Amino acid sequence: MKGRKYIIIALVFLIVWVGVILFFGTRRPVESSNQSYFVYNAIKSIDNVFDFSDTKWFREIEVFLKKLWLRDQYADSIALIRKSAHFGIYFILGGFSWLFGFLYSKRFLIGALLGVSLPALIASIDEYSQEFVGRGSALNDVIIDISGAFFANLIIMVVYIVYKIWKKRGEIMK
C-alpha cells in the first residue's frame, strides 16, 4: 500500500508538470515575450547584486550555450534564456517521468525509457500546439527539450550506479 501511495504522488507531480509545460506553450507571442523579459530582468537584478556575469566562467558558459543551442555566440540573452528554460523545464519533466516509471515498474530501464520518451512526446505536442497560438514551432526546441530530459536521466543513472556501488561496498565491509 505504501508503494502505491508513492506511485500516485509521482503521477500527480508528472501530470501537474506536463500541465505547466502545456500552459506555457499556449501563451501568445506577446505573453511569452513578456515572460522572457521578466526572467531576464530578474536575472539582471540578481547580477547587479552578485556581479556574476563579468566572470570568465560565466562568459565561457554563455558562449558555449549560444553556439550549441542558437548556433551563434552573438545571439541575444533573451534567446538564451528561452532555450535554457526549455532545457530546465524538460530536465525536471525527465526526472519526474523517470521517477514514475521506476516506481511503477521497479525497473531502472523502464524508468529511463519513460524518462526520455514521454518528454520527447510532450515536447513534440507542445511545439506543434504553438502553431495554433501564433508562435512558430522549431525542431531545435524539441532537441533542446529532449536533451534536458536525457541529461536528467543521465544524472539519475550516475547517482543510481554510485549508490549501488556504495551499498555493495558497505555490505562487503561488514
TrEMBL record:
Transmembrane segments: 6-25, 87-104, 142-163
Keyword terms of this UniProt record: Membrane, Transmembrane, Transmembrane helix
Keyword Transmembrane helix: yes
InterPro entries noted in UniProt: VanZ-like
Residue ranges of coiled coil: none
Sequence ranges assigned to domain VanZ-like in this UniProt record: 11-159
Protein name stated in the entry: VanZ like family protein
Organism name: Geotoga petraea
Taxonomic lineage from the root: Bacteria, Thermotogati, Thermotogota, Thermotogae, Petrotogales
